[in-house]
Design goal:
Layout (H helix, E strand, L loop, with lengths): L2 E5 L2 E4 L4 E8 L7 E7 L6 E7 L4 E3 L7 E6 L4 E6 L8 E8 L5 E3 L3 E6 L1
Parallel strand pairs: 2-11
Antiparallel strand pairs: 1-3, 3-8, 4-5, 4-9, 5-6, 7-8, 9-10, 9-11
Length: 116
């Protein structure tokens, strides 16, 4: 039915950039909120960025000023532009979509590795 598929992860050196994409398929509705979480080895999963249906955004303090979340509603796709990457950004990044009064949807994750 509804599926979120991430892409764009990979290996990049510190200071570099990556652009993650998350496409929602199997639905024509728009999520009220879409966002990105990440989970580093041995760490709790944390919210990185989120964007609402009104296009307001929020970011974790650790990525503020370096990451930009955006959404292309026509393509049912949310993006995460990551600049000035640091080794601490290394994690599996998960896309999520939320609908009010409904379940949360999660992608399978894409690995981002930032080398020193």
């Amino acid at each position: 039915q509804v599926q979120l598929v991430e892409s764009g992860g990979g290996l990049v050196q510190a200071g570099g950039s990556l652009r993650l994409s998350c496409r929602a398929s199997g639905t024509i509705f728009l999520f009220n909120v879409m966002g990105w979480y990440r989970q580093a080895p041995g760490k709790q999963r944390e919210l990185v960025a989120a964007i609402t249906s009104s296009d307001s955004t929020t970011y974790a303090d650790s990525v503020q000023g370096r990451y930009t979340i955006s959404r292309d509603k026509a393509k049912n796709t949310v993006y995460l532009q990551m600049n000035s990457l640091k080794p601490e950004d290394t994690a599996v990044y998960y896309c999520t979509g939320k609908v009010a009064s409904g379940p949360d949807y999660w992608g399978q994750g894409t690995q981002v590795t930032v080398s020193s």
